[in-house]
Automatic annotation (TrEMBL):
Pfam families: EF-hand_7 (PF13499). One of its GO terms (molecular function) is calcium ion binding. Residues 18-53, 91-126 form the EF-hand domain. Gene3D superfamilies: EF-hand. The lineage of its organism: Eukaryota, Metazoa, Chordata, Craniata, Vertebrata. It comes from Moschus moschiferus. This is EF-hand calcium binding domain 11.
Length: 150
């Protein structure tokens, strides 16, 4: 379920009961020795099971450096929080891609200023052209800084 507060992105997401149960089951399955935590390798296996890809060394390092240093690995509560955040990011990227695709009528992989204007006329017809141009300009700057391609 998604819920959001005006102006905040990305929206927060809560797992359904069956999904939450699945995450706990994956944690338990990957915690083979019932240590109460996942090692770096256990975490990688859990990500493969839940998301279908093996995390990179950088991602694994980032996650392992974020856990409580007094533990030997990722405890269940931390694991559930990590998985929830990964799922939120996945859903947000999917939503952005879906919206972008709806406005990319010529299937070029990018939006021209004219595409952008048409899109805004559909969703916000009373918005001034000056604001639309400014938003378009800001998106170009944001994309060039992050090199983000949809």
């Amino acid at each position: 379920m998604f819920y959001s507060q005006p102006g905040l992105r990305p929206r927060t997401w809560e797992a359904s009961s069956p999904e939450h149960k699945k995450w706990v089951e994956v944690f338990k399955a990957c915690d083979e020795d019932n240590k109460g935590y996942l090692s770096r390798e256990d975490f990688k296996v859990a990500v493969v099971m839940l998301f279908g890809y093996k995390p990179s060394k950088i991602e694994a390092d980032s996650v392992m450096s974020s856990v409580d240093p007094n533990t030997s690995g990722i405890r269940l509560k931390e694991f559930l929080d990590i998985v929830r955040k990964k799922k939120e990011a996945q859903l947000y990227r999917s939503e952005v891609r879906h919206i972008f695709t709806a406005f990319d009528r010529h299937y070029r992989g990018y939006l021209t200023l004219e595409d952008f204007k048409k899109a805004f006329k559909q969703v916000a017809p009373k918005l001034s052209e000056r604001i639309i141009l400014e938003v378009f300009r800001l998106q170009i700057v944001a994309c060039s800084e992050t090199e983000y391609l949809v």
